[in-house]
């Protein structure tokens, strides 16, 4: 008996990540899972899309050491306060106690900025835009969950330096454009929320969360963008000489998204049959299945190989499943693993010079063999759009704008707010929800703050979160 | 004043890795360096070639956690003895002391085999072939050196399970074939040495070293292949049920190569002008440089862009350097960075419908513009072959077969040996060299052991090593 997503999302999720061969949670450290080949392939495809976006916008890829000396990490006071409870400490090497403790990066600001201090000399070195795709470590005390809350986290982090606040702000606009491009690949809608002061990133001037709503009706942050202003460049002495020979502090930003991208994609698009992968991140985009009846195998096999070649030559990731089991068992396997399109070829299809294309969402289409590439292209596009529309529709239904503090709302509540921290925290307490922040771009609000009754300056979003 | 390779190889190497923009050694932990964008690009190209080889031979890519619980690591007694002095220990997380210490992987046998124990059930699950490309950590006490001896090491490790010793031996043959294919990309000759008993990998039944000789005339191991027999499958209980329903232990092998590949490539091919990258791992394979004289800029720029498009459309990694500095300064930069081919285009070239192609090794050829792609193809191949031949010739000169224990030999000495450990260790001491091991494939030896005078069973190689 397998668990149904429609009945119990959490149980379904915990089950499906292993049954779809994405990860193995039995590794003997809680919250540190093994990426199985299929899951890791998806992850590498996501990395490749991120890399493409970041290279297109002239970010340079680097790789910094994992370990950070304690003193370096403690240079920015707020930053260390924010991460103090979450870091893993290396204290010994071999039989020796280290002179200085080293920590496993929970994020790389302090590692990278000690080098930026050396790399940046003049205005000609700016903007400096780098990123890395690495694993990061956080000692989570909450319940762990594959991809969504783990202690070794696969992620990218970009770090940029600019001559002034305005140029850093332009970077943040570029980051938002990257998100817009990138999330299409995952067929995922997202919300941009400017986090309230009391929940911004440790050391940030302000933080933007990239949030999605999962079927549990709870919100999860998939990524974040931070404006640091001079908060790090001052303690790390990252300065440049401007055209007039004056030394100035750089303004800095960061941008990061993690393997939660995969967790959210699985959560949102999956169904009772398994996961559903958007074509852009599917290791196998098309699975060919021979429908074989006794005595006619050769003709079907031959046709399957022909069609395989045609599809592969056109650049699709395609696989021919010629295992000696029934077609039904194959359907089951590949639906579980979320392959977007299935091509079935049997004797009757061959006679009619057709193939049968079945989408992961169940839509079944007969396609003329001679126009198979057009058919695949069309269905792949339409399937992607369908995934996106479904997710958008769910997200839209989950946002509830309200002029009263309605309790018991599932999803996100948007209420008028004066912007005052005390009012915000009181609303959080009353609703037993967390503040996501204010929408980006800002949405005009003419109401009055639901706590103090003063004129509202903005809508504010609250939700149950991960 | 820059350091000359011909004068002082070590100083040249330490200097060139930073000047060619490969890494930055100023990170505040000894032996943990920062991969700069150019170096990391080369490293990713090497990874891609490894990945291609391993996928072609049906290895599946996985990613295992970095941290290993102490108990798990200590399951195989020899293994832990071999690494005890080299591991970094995580003892605390946040403010808590961990109940069990965790170590940063120095290699992943113990992490992976705890899961193989769960993954393998039947003969149908075999062979199981996986690999990962990750960073590994070893607390080196010797002097560190960029890429060649570091404490955070970028590497791949493949781990395979087989039904019996013979199938594991076939895997090792496949590993040797992969090396043969792969090293062509780096234009590097290498020696295969079966390590003596006293220097095999911790836990191995036997070990093969993939060795190269650097210009320092010292030998460095770039990779290794290990036959484990049942040495790990017994403590980790990796068993399978055979066709008769009997439970048997798997036979296992591993294969690994590290960022030393890059270090050796730089060491061997570089010259006083900088590094020389083999085309397959060059981030920029062709650099186009406009030779501009006053007043004729437009025509040259236009032609450069045309040629750029032609070359890029053909799949080469090409860059057009249109910085506002002299051509000579550009030559200097790209020679330093080891770009294989330079294409110069000036007004006289345009008049003659020619371009000038200059190889990193100095060869200069005029090529008709209409046959530029053929010219590039030809010179790129010839340049690769030239690099390989030079390196082969150097390696050959460095191997000295001798029937006496000649002291003071530079490079490798090959002497007859009875195979006895005492004799081997005595020769090491007398020559003040390390035993590399016996050649693979074995080379017939008819002499007598230089220590005990008994009939030699094999040649044995000794050298100064890193």
> Strand order across the biggest sheet of chain A?
3-7-8-14-11-10-9-22-23-21-20
The CATH homologous superfamily of the largest domain in chain A is named Bira Bifunctional Protein, Domain 2
Radius of gyration of chain A: 25 Å
**Major pleated sheet of chain A:** 11 strands, mixed
Low-confidence stretches of chain A: none
The CATH class label of the largest domain in chain A is Alpha Beta
Helix content of chain A: 25-40%
Number of domains of chain A: 3
- In terms of DSSP E residues, the strand content of chain A is 25-35%
How would you describe the shape of chain A? globular
The pair of chains with the biggest contact is: A-B, 51 and 51 residues
Number of strands of chain A: 23
Alpha plus pi helix count of chain A? 12
Oligomer: homodimer
What is the CATH T-level topology of the largest domain in chain A? BirA Bifunctional Protein, domain 2
Mean pLDDT of chain A: 96
Distance between the termini of chain A: 28 Å
The structure class of chain A reads alpha+beta
């Amino acid at each position: 008996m397998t668990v149904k997503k429609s009945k119990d999302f959490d149980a379904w999720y915990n089950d499906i990540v292993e049954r779809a061969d994405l990860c193995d949670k039995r590794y003997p450290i809680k919250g540190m899972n093994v990426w199985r080949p299929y899951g890791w392939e998806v992850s590498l495809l996501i990395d490749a899309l991120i890399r493409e976006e970041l290279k297109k916008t002239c970010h340079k890829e680097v790789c910094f050491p994992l370990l950070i000396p304690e003193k370096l990490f403690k240079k920015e006071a707020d930053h260390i306060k924010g991460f103090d409870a979450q870091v893993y400490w290396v204290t010994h090497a071999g039989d020796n106690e280290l002179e200085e403790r080293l920590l496993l990066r929970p994020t790389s600001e302090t590692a990278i900025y000690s080098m930026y201090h050396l790399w940046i000399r003049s205005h000609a070195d700016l903007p400096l835009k780098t990123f890395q795709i690495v694993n990061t470590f956080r000692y989570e005390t909450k319940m762990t969950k594959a991809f969504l809350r783990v202690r070794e986290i696969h992620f990218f982090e970009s770090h940029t330096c600019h001559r002034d606040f305005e140029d850093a702000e332009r970077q943040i606009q570029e980051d938002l454009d990257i998100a817009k491009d990138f999330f299409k690949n995952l067929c995922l809608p997202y919300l941009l929320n400017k986090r309230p002061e009391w929940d911004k990133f440790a050391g940030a001037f302000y933080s933007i969360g990239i949030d999605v709503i999962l079927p549990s009706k709870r919100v999860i942050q998939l990524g974040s963008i931070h404006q640091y202003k001079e908060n790090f460049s001052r303690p790390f002495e990252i300065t440049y000489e401007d055209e007039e020979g004056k030394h100035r502090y750089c303004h800095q930003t960061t941008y990061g998204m993690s393997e939660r991208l995969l967790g959210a994609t699985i959560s949102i698009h999956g169904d009772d049959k398994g996961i559903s992968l958007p074509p852009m991140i599917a290791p196998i985009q098309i699975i060919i299945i021979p429908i074989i009846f006794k005595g006619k195998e050769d003709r079907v096999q031959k046709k399957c190989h022909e069609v395989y070649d045609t599809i592969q030559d056109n650049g699709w990731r395609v696989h021919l499943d010629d295992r000696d089991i029934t077609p039904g068992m194959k359907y089951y396997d590949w639906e579980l693993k979320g392959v977007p399109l299935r091509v079935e070829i049997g004797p009757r299809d061959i006679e009619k010079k057709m193939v049968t294309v079945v989408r992961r969402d169940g839509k079944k289409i007969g396609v003329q063999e001679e126009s198979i590439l057009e058919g695949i292209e069309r269905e792949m596009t339409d399937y992607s759009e369908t995934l996106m529309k479904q997710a958008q529709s769910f997200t839209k239904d989950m946002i509830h704008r309200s002029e009263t503090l309605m309790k018991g709302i599932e999803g996100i509540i948007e209420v008028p707010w004066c912007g005052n921290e005390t009012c915000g925290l009181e609303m959080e307490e009353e609703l037993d929800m967390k503040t996501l922040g204010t929408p980006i771009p800002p949405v005009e609000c003419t109401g009055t703050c639901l706590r103090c009754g003063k004129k509202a300056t903005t809508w504010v979003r609250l939700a149950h979160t991960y």
